[in-house]
Amino acid sequence: MLGRKPSLREARHIDKVFFTGIDDLFYESVATHYRPSDELRTLVQAMLDERGLAWDIRRKDVWSHVRPVEHTAETQLPTQGWKIHVSANEQNCRDLLTKVATLALDHGMQFKFANDVNTLKLMTSKRWARGGSGKFITLYPRTDEEFRDFIELAYAILKDDVGSYILSDNRYKDCRCLYYRYGGIIQVNRLDYMGRKVPILTSPDGEEIVDYRTPYFDVPPWTTDPFPREDAEPADMTLMNGRFAIQSALAFSNTGGVYLATDTTTGEDVVIKEARPHVELGEHGQDATSRLAQEERMLSLVADLGISPRLVTTFWDWENFYLAEEHLDASDMREVMLMNSPLLKVNPTVEDSETFYRIHKSIFVSLLKAIDAIHGKGVIMGDLSPMNILVDKADMTVRIIDLESAYQPKSDEPQNIYTPGFRSEVKGRKKENDFHDDIYAIGAIMMYSMFPIVATAYVRNDLFTRMLPVLVADIGWANTPVEDVIRKLAENTITCHEAIELLDAPASFEQPYTARQVERELSSAAASIALARFITDHYRLDDLHTLFPADPFGGQTNTLGLGFGATGIVQALHKCGCTLPAPARERFDREIAAAQASEIPPGFLTGSAGIAWSFFGMGNTEQGKRFMAHANASPLLRAHHSLYYGMAGIGMANLAAYLHTNDSTYLNAAKDLANSLASSAIEDERGLHWEDDGEIRIGYGYGQSGVALFFLRLSQVLKAPTWRALGQKALEYDLSFGFELETGITTFACSPEEKNTYEHYIEQGTGGIAKVAIRYGLWDRLESMFPDVYRKYSGFPGLIYGLTGFVDVLLDAYLYSGNRKYLDMAERPLQGIADLYLFKSGDGYAAPGENLFRISCDFATGIAGMMRTFHRHANRTPDEFCLDELDVRPSETHAAQRLEPMELD
Fold first, then answer.
1. Looking at the predicted structure, is the pLDDT value of residue 680 above 80?
2. Closest listed residue to residue 212, CA positions, set 132, 123, 120, 128
3. Quick check: 63 pLDDT over 50?
4. According to the lineage, what is the superkingdom (predicted)?
5. Helix/strand/coil for 417
6. pLDDT for residue 901 is more than 70
7. Contact, 219 vs 671, CB < 8 A?
8. CA pair distance 702, 568, nearest whole angstrom
9. Structure-derived torsion over alpha carbons of residues 303, 308, 312, 316, reported in degrees to the nearest 10
10. Ordered structural domains, the chain, with CATH
11. Pair 182, 199: CB distance under 8 Å
């Protein structure tokens, strides 16, 4: 990620861990649902009462805002300007709030503070965004003069206090808790084409620019730092008085960076870990620096074991603490798994199974020995996961890195740091890590290294009893001790030494995917009904919750949208013939009626176009027209080219509206969008493509394939072959980047520059490109693409980026060819969904959403999309969002019926 901009699939990714602390089943926002203590609020309220001020404290998200009840011209804040921030730690936050609030109220300055101490700790945690970290109190001066005067007064009372360094700000003088930056005061947001609310600043000449929360101090071009530093110099890319020369950054987090550097005294490459003080606050007074010092002690303690990097030195440079350690010539354990696991191949052999077993055994015998030796030193690892295990390329033995969570319970404060999915989450367990957690983690990592599905333990309790046997059988290891070892490690009924002895037992291997041949527990029709029952059992009517639980991206974009909102779920239920309960229908209708065009992007996946198309499909022409008008009048109408967010998707929705209403207004709108796309296209020897912000995307959701589908459908409606020809040029551009990942199997990356990760999905990857190529009739090209979706294993189960999408593509292939081999192929991903993801919950069935920690009901990534696809598979119906009604029934006419059956081994 440090080497390129994120893909648009990555851009919609949200750290789901922040959404797992409220509900055991669903992703819910901590900011919305957490109930903070009143300790800090009570402190400030007492000051207001003492002064008799007509001010109040209003909570919003993670903040408590202190401001006058009645706004007057004198109290009106500017839209933007210089803001003052105060950082703190757990020990001094109450004292700092008292001092700062007293000063602010004495001067009539409005401010906000973190809701409580837990919120402060969250906002200084490792996973918190670096650009927003550390801001315990924010003060809002009304003028530049007031800003200058007040910050000097604040300095006088805070100059000896400390807090975390606020990366987005400049420090005021030498005060280690007082900072400032220029930014929005009264928040002004603009929608982007995805539907995200982007904070905006306005220049003196009226130009709007994004108010980026960068992890470094920056000012807009029309102003300057009011307190320029005379001694400011360019950053020196060395540490420890020049001893370590930084080569590159390996990673960044809120706690600090990790760097590859050269030790100039020896010429050796080293890894340098940085820790910033007063961040990642622990329950016993720890912070990132004390944890890195703890890692120094642990590395020294286990140095004689030869299982971790050699400690070079530790040092302070400026205010931060650093640890330099040996740079290991070793691979990330996850990379070894991805490169070798037979479950991630389409056509694995017995030899693949045996080879991976040898690798797997070597790695885990080594890991078991390492943890046994560490435990022999009285040390608990605590945070043990694939992310802190490297594999030596020469002998496939492990090296353990990142020991900051390790501790000796007899002498150290207990730690509660762990990676989700690799610690037993049994109810009633104590918070602190113990020796049993390390043993459980080894079992979980052994299973994860076969296929990364252990996070599902958060929503189901049969990870090692139902899912593990499936993995073992499919990988060809039924006649090996692996299943027994993993289960006993997870149950903590076996020692490391005993596990090693078991792994030395004889093993024989089978052809992957052949040892376990069972019928799906639920037919597609039954699965669709069971998923619908779960959805209709879990609607919510209170204002704190969305109507249906969905992926958190919906909360950041549009809770009514097709992809991640209520409309997608309601239309999927309608398509499946399911009745929405009356209370849910009433809330949905009420929210639809209240929807404001200015708050919704125009696009297909998250915006008005997708909502409109859904309503047309449900027979509600009035609402379809209303939302189509919203899309066509949006200032973001031409902001992006793509099917999911831009002109191609809005154009498709206009064509759907035209076919539904016969109103030429929609056809004209579609033609206008097509002309805009044609005029902005870039043509080269590969075909036609589009760029956004200098980036080229490949695929259905964001690349040329989605535009090609729109051009094809427009050509059919207009009976104008020119648009089909342009569309095929666009499709050819994406097809030209096909890569042979396995012999005879073509796959695709998300961009021309991406050379390491190839994807198989509808959103981006083979699946989506294949959907369009099917409709163009490019069967000769497709025969090497279909095997890439002939997979049982995928990291997520959903429609646009998971196993369900593979079923969708292969069903398309059948409907457009009449060849039953594609239905036979679809059984593999269907079996994967059944074996890996579907589970009984209440009266229905459910499946985890993306990242697997919780259930989502949305159309794009959750249960609704799965339900719809099961129903589609059971009834052999066309794709409702591809305008397939424009095609003659291909199964009756297409020559693909006569293709030879594909080998499915």
1. yes
2. 132
3. yes
4. Bacteria
5. coil
6. no
7. no
8. 19
9. -110
10. 35-210 (3.30.2430), 238-326 (3.30.200.20), 336-503 (1.10.510.10)
11. no
